[in-house]
């Protein structure tokens, strides 16, 4: 856990250094996203404790702390989410993460990663390394996102995306409610993809921080 958390902290520290070295470490520790990430790493750590009865008090502490973090920061990272080191959450509010992800995942505000609604999916999204997800974007259902993918703001992704692609836009479809049972909506609302080189994590962090 500590090594993973150290790599998470390095990303926040690099962003804090862009505004000057003075108190950079303290400012990095007080970032909303880093606080939520710390709690998530702690929660995942409690699941590794054996025997199970030994983990109960630690899990209770996690459950108690999770409530104010969700209410005050608006960041909900599922305990089932398996996210690699270097997780960077910029800004706060409306963020829900339930996914499997590789290293250096970057997300901003109002991002949702999780199951498709109405019982239409049986698994959460799977993301590769160095994925960036812009404000308001949604990645829904049993989909795979390749390494180095950049998902633009307000984009809804419901299909697999190959590595090193840029995904932007959000098409919509209007249909009567009674048609929902007969219509497969999995192909709608998915942005078009076009090849693009992925930004490095450091460049992504600086861009996110500048926009914030």
Automatic annotation (TrEMBL):
Pfam families given for it? Hexapep
Low complexity: compositionally biased ranges: 190-201
Q: Which GO terms describe its cellular component?
A: cytoplasm
Tell me which Gene3D superfamilies the record gives.
Answer: Hexapeptide repeat proteins (2.160.10.10)
Entry keyword Transferase: yes
Q: Which GO terms describe its molecular function?
A: serine O-acetyltransferase activity
Superkingdom of origin organism? Bacteria
Enzyme's top EC category: transferase
Q: Which reaction does it catalyse?
A: L-serine + acetyl-CoA = O-acetyl-L-serine + CoA
InterPro entries per UniProt: Hexapep, Hexapep_transf_CS, LbH_SAT, Ser_O-AcTrfase, Trimer_LpxA-like_sf
Q: What is its EC number?
A: 2.3.1.30
Specify where the region named Disordered lies, as residue ranges.
186-212
- Which keywords appear in this protein's UniProt record, sorted alphabetically? Acyltransferase, Repeat, Transferase
Q: Which GO terms describe its biological process?
A: cysteine biosynthetic process from serine
**PANTHER family per the record?**
SERINE ACETYLTRANSFERASE
Annotated family: Belongs to the transferase hexapeptide repeat family.
Provide the protein name: Serine acetyltransferase
